[in-house]
Amino acid sequence: MNIDGTATRSIWVEADGRSVGIFDQRLLPWALERMVLRSVEDAAVAIADMATRGAPLIGAVAAYGLAFGLYEDASDAALDAVHARLLRTRPTAVNLRWALDRIGDAVRPLAPSDRAAAAFAEAGRICDEDVAMNRAIGAAGLPIIRALAERKGGKPVNILTHCNAGWLATVDWGTATAPLYMAHDAGIPLHIWVDETRPRNQGALTTFELAQHGVPHSYIVDNAGGLLMQQGLVDMVIVGTDRVAANGDVCNKIGTYLKALAAKEHGVPFYVALPSSTYDPATPDGASVPIEQRSADEVRFVSGTDEAGRLAAIRLTGSPAYNPAFDITPATLVTGYVTDYGLLTDAADLRRSMAT
Ligand SMILES: CSC[C@@H](O)[C@@H](O)C(=O)COP(=O)(O)O
């Protein structure tokens, strides 16, 4: 997508052909700073500290991280150790394990001298495929929005989204945002309600993306969605996901479940957008997904910039805090899964289409 009119991805290969660049998402949307990852530790720390984030993107970064490790030592033992190091960075998004396993499976049969370059090339393919999957998700979601627009007779379709499932969370396009961008580009009038998504405020990343693309939107506090649905101001909800279990339960950013409950109560369709790399048939249900617990300081402080553009963190409380980063939305609350295989309706449909 675009930043100030220049097309970019969220991750790219640097000129040396052996390192990759990313945006430091801890500073967005206030400051646009790039950082270069060259080593396993660079990749691992960027993922754990959320300099890079979003399920598909952390998979891509981890894939390059494994390649960096193989440039240093391409033995079987090193491959296993680096795989384990990167897998430990964040527990919830299955894309991380999916990407590491894919690189491991691709290079293990090779001679050690060939492994690093092969891993680097495979990581590039993961990135390209992510872009293609997100385009397909966009194409699958577009008719849903078009149908709502026809029903609204030219009035804007109001769509609520949570967290950032945009191009910054993927390699390009985003999952939940791909249909939004395609609908906007097709001339369908839209207005997006963007949940702020405390405590890390990924919604601010979504506002940055939508503003760059010219999509009308409003930033709302996490608790506003229920009222907006009650007042008929939300036509559909669409979110991304970090893992969809075999039974169709959806793990996504904390707060997603409450939106799904409110949507059910008010008859608002609730869609989950996912690429096949986020479907995990090995996890039977939502209760089996490991929920990441992050630092209590993410809750105790808010970060932003002051009027002069200086970064500042403000303490809200000194009390103990609890910070589960994700929650589970039961499959029963999901209207449909917008995927690279099209619009799928239930767990059986997911299994048939996505399980390899
Ligand atoms: C396409 S991204 C879907 C999810 O990864 C996204 O909504 C989300 O929960 C991101 O969480 P984050 O903790 O910022 O990595």
From TrEMBL:
Pathway: Amino-acid biosynthesis; L-methionine biosynthesis via salvage pathway; L-methionine from S-methyl-5-thio-alpha-D-ribose 1-phosphate: step 1/6. Signal peptide: none annotated. Substrate binds at R53, G54, A55, R90, Q202, N252, K253. InterPro entries: IF-2B-related, IF-M1Pi, IF_2B-like_C, Initiation_fac_2B_a/b/d, M1Pi_N, NagB/RpiA_transferase-like. The active site is at D242. One of its GO terms (molecular function) is S-methyl-5-thioribose-1-phosphate isomerase activity. Keywords: Amino-acid biosynthesis, Isomerase, Methionine biosynthesis. Transmembrane segments: none annotated. SUPFAM superfamilies: NagB/RpiA/CoA transferase-like. It catalyses: 5-deoxy-alpha-D-ribose 1-phosphate = 5-deoxy-D-ribulose 1-phosphate; 5-(methylsulfanyl)-alpha-D-ribose 1-phosphate = 5-(methylsulfanyl)-D-ribulose 1-phosphate. Its EC number is 5.3.1.23. One of its GO terms (biological process) is L-methionine salvage from methylthioadenosine. It is an enzyme of class 5 (isomerase). Pfam families: IF-2B (PF01008). The record marks C163 as: Transition state stabilizer. Catalyzes the interconversion of methylthioribose-1-phosphate (MTR-1-P) into methylthioribulose-1-phosphate (MTRu-1-P). Also catalyzes the interconversion of 5-deoxyribose 1-phosphate and 5-deoxyribulose 1-phosphate. Part of a bifunctional DHAP-shunt salvage pathway for SAM by-products. PANTHER family: METHYLTHIORIBOSE-1-PHOSPHATE ISOMERASE (PTHR43475). HAMAP family: Salvage_MtnA (MF_01678). Belongs to the EIF-2B alpha/beta/delta subunits family. MtnA subfamily. This is Methylthioribose-1-phosphate isomerase. The gene is mtnA.
